[in-house]
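Same chain as my last thread, 235 residues:
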Amino acid sequence: MIGPRSSTSLERSRWWPKWWLVSLALVVVAGAAITVGLTPYRHALAPPVSSAGHSSARASTPILAQTASQESVLGRSTPVSISIPAISLAAPLSELGLTPYGTVVVPTDFAVPGWFEPGPSPGQVGSAVILGHVDNTEGPAVFFNLRTLVPGDEIDVASADGVTTQFAVTSVAMYSKSAFPAANVYGSKGGESLQLVTCGGVFDPALGSYLSNIVVSSSLESATLPNGMIEHFST
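reply #2:
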């Protein structure tokens, strides 16, 4: 999952004692910490943290406000499925909100990624975010092979309104959870982007968590409309 493509503890999952894996499947990603400050790793899905190790509500709140207020080329619509041909992935999508602590809700199904519903939908101006598990005690989960994607790979997202948006991968990176770039992942860059997030790096059995996140960034290339017409977007 990333470049440089260091090996992760994921490949060693077949040898791990099961008690190590109590929290293995939890995707620890930076969400929007709206009200309550938390230290990293307190919950399965951690909020963005400052250099002091506490969440920053002032930094995260404008991210959602910015993405929600901008005019979109495509209308807002719930994404219902995702397809990534390069890794033979095809899966339905769930919707994810925020916990009372201001962290992102964990997907309940290891085979089903979740769209961060407070943000824009794929194809809208801003940064749409989809989160998925990397593995569990039974083996690889839906985003296990995310780390193998390379720039140019295609990501297709079908929405409830019949529109399918096509994105092209622009980068694959790994970030320490203590330095997760929440503003970059969740914040608008002025265009239509999609971020896919999962766990990666070293698994720490004491914390019951991976120490890093894999982030695949992509930009909107085109949209196939319900009538079959294809609209292309400049990057």
